[in-house]
Design a protein that fits this description.
Length: about 240
């Protein structure tokens, strides 16, 4: 049984974990146990805390996606982290595996997304339509193995399912993502999208945090470890690609 999460960073203000695919960040209608519940239990046990633990996710990852998730351990940290995300002062890097080669080696995608909450899908439009929200991301091809391309993605905005629907809209659905047009699911119901890096200034200590979530311990992902030659030193992640 794989662990639902691994701790990447922890102090009095933040708990940052690497989430396994298949775990919900926050509750939904399934009523399944969430990453938030599991992390609260972890904090309660580690610090022997009686009573309720204050722990709130600052952003979310879709259930079938793996990678970095940030929790705030104090209301002050929650307020400040929420502001950092809102002002786009958190630099996010994802890795995705796709079967179809993107025509360009690197590019920027801009769409207007409309979310259908009942069906839990987003639809991308090339022009603004009623109720739509502008969504931007950049991508870069990092390499190819076993008929799949590894892409590095950097979302500029943070819309529901944004990376999944934007890649699908250029005919490059993410491996395993049947909701957005990939022909078949992955055996474990995950999709090959991983929140790989997060860089931001610590909301309280004002130090730069460069966080990196190891790739899932799963055979298909592990072939791509040879591309993981990212140095942990500060590479101005907001300006360069990780290859």
């Amino acid at each position: 049984m794989k662990k639902p999460f691994n701790v990447i960073f922890e102090d009095n203000h933040l708990l940052i974990v690497n989430k396994s695919a298949g775990i919900l960040v926050q509750g939904d209608k399934t009523g399944d146990k969430t990453l938030t519940d599991l992390c609260k239990t972890y904090i309660a046990n580690k610090y022997n805390k009686p009573g309720a633990v204050f722990l709130h996710p600052v952003h979310r990852l879709d259930r079938p996606v793996s990678g970095v998730v940030v929790f705030a351990r104090t209301s002050k940290a929650l307020e400040r982290m929420t502001a950092l995300f809102r002002k786009r002062e958190v630099h996010k890097v994802y890795w995705a595996l796709v079967k179809r080669k993107p025509r360009e080696e690197a590019g920027k995608l801009t769409h207007w997304l409309v979310k259908d909450a009942d069906k839990n899908v987003s639809k991308a439009y090339d022009k603004e339509v009623p109720e739509s929200k502008k969504s931007e991301m950049t991508y870069k091809r990092l390499g190819k193995l076993n008929d799949h391309w590894l892409l590095e993605l950097r979302p500029v905005t943070g819309r529901p399912h944004q990376l999944r629907v934007q890649l699908a809209s250029m005919d490059c659905p993410i491996r395993g993502d049947v909701k957005y047009g990939f022909p078949k699911p992955n055996p474990d119901a995950s999709i090959n999208l991983h929140a790989f890096h997060l860089v931001f200034i610590h909301p309280i200590k004002k130090e730069k945090l460069i966080l990196r979530a190891a790739l899932p311990e799963e055979a298909f992902w592990e072939q791509f470890l040879e591309f993981e030659n990212v140095k942990s030193s500060d590479r101005h992640l907001d300006k360069t690609y990780s290859g």
